[in-house]
Every structure is written in structure tokens, then in C-alpha cells.
Amino acid sequence: MASNLEFIKSAEVTSTTTTLEITDCFNDKYDVYYVAIRNFNSDNSANTIYLRFLDSSNTVINSGSLYSRADLALNSNSSFSEGREATTDRINIGTTNADTAGNLNVSVDVFNPYNSSSYTFINYQTSARELEARKGIAVLRQTSTIKGLQLKSDTGGRNFTQGKISVYGIKQ
């Protein structure tokens, strides 16, 4: 599949921040995108990371209850558990820790983001902390043109200290 990927754009944490956005990365050239979220870490313990989309003006879509998600958490230190939210303003994609063992890595497939007559769907796989993983699906239940995405910390007091997002178009 690597030969079917075309690099589009990346963004990196360069100073402590609670959000990282990558704008103008989705267009009408592709229906499916691969997003690599790598080595996210925080300056405080256990920082939950949320994903939200940016509309055609690169404005965050976070009003109301437009997102739905379901996932399975596969933790080595506890039993597996299901997570779901039917109506929320963001997608919970994983948790960091404040040490090198806590780096969050997520692989996301994004379907139809630029198609204004279709919902935008994702499936994602997360690995973080010591043998913790998550596999999930989510949808933005709004038909609109999506041009980018945002990663956001769960609270203002917890900052990202490192991390990189890379977006690739998947050639058909």
C-alpha cells in the first residue's frame, strides 16, 4: 500500500500547545486519506486527545453533537472494554502519558472528507503507553466539505510537548 500513498502535508508540535491543526489537506483529488499521528506526548499525566474536523473555511466543527464513535480498548493491564458516544462534539482517539512510554501513535483512514453530499467517516487504530491499543470507527454526521483536522488536549492545563501529523492521499 505504501506505493499507493501520496504525501500531502504535515504539521508538528514546535512549542507546548493544547491544539495542533493541519489545514487545507483534503481536496477533491482523493476520496480516501491516510493520517499518521505520531509520537504525541504531554507535559502532564494522562492526556486524552480528541480529533475534530475543519470545515471549508478551516473552522473547527465542534458545535452540538455532530460526532459519533465506537471503539474497543485492548489494554494489557486490564480487561478489554468498549467505548462509545452517540452524540458528542469531538472524537476521543487515545491517551498520552508524560513519559517516553506514553507516546500516542494513531493511524487514521478518512473517507469522503471533501464530498459535501456525504458524511465523513474514519476508522482508527491507536497504540500508546505500555501495551495499550484501541481500534475504532467514527463519523461526522454532517454533510459538508472538510478541508482539515484538529487534535486537541482534553484540558487547557495539559499541553502537547511533541507530536507530528502527516496526511497522505490514497491513490485508487
Notable characteristics:
mainly beta, 172 residues, 56% strand, 12 strands, four-stranded antiparallel beta sheet
Sheet with the most strands, sense and barrel status: 8 strands, antiparallel
Helical amount among residues, as a percent range?
under 10%
Order of helices and strands: EEEEEEEEEEEE
Mean pLDDT, to the nearest integer, reads 89
Quick one: how many beta strands?
12
How far the N terminus sits from the C terminus, by CA atoms, comes to 10 Å
Shape by Cα distribution:
globular
Ranges where pLDDT stays below 50 over 5 or more residues in a row are none
Find the structural class using helix and strand composition.
mainly beta
> What is Rg?
15 Å
For the biggest β-sheet, the strand order reads: 1-12-3-8-9-10-5-6
Beta-strand percent range: over 45%
Q: DSSP helix count?
A: 0
What would you say this structure looks like, in words?
By secondary structure, this protein is an all-beta fold. The protein is 0% helix and 56% strand. It contains no helices and 12 strands. It has strands spanning 5-12, 19-22, 32-42, 47-54, 67-75, 81-88, 91-96, 104-111, 120-128, 132-140, 148-153, 160-170. An 8-stranded antiparallel β-sheet has the order 1-12-3-8-9-10-5-6, with no helix packed on it. Strands 2-11-4-7 form a 4-stranded antiparallel β-sheet, with no helix packed on it. It is globular. It starts with a strand and ends with a strand. The mean pLDDT is 89.
